[in-house]
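Record type: monomer structure entry
Structure origin: computed from sequence
Chain ID: A
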Amino acid sequence: MTVCPIAIAVGCKKCPAFSVCPLKSVLGDQKPNAPSTPAEKDKR
């Protein structure tokens, strides 16, 4: 669910507060529990 106006306009990654935003997976466009490395993707 994208509710954040910045995430709607340009996406979470381009937001200046991306690194500190605690709600990017709730209000933004980031998927919760997204694997950060390719090795973690292979485990699924």
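Annotation 1: The chain has a mean pLDDT of 77.
Annotation 2: Helices lie at 5-9, 38-43.
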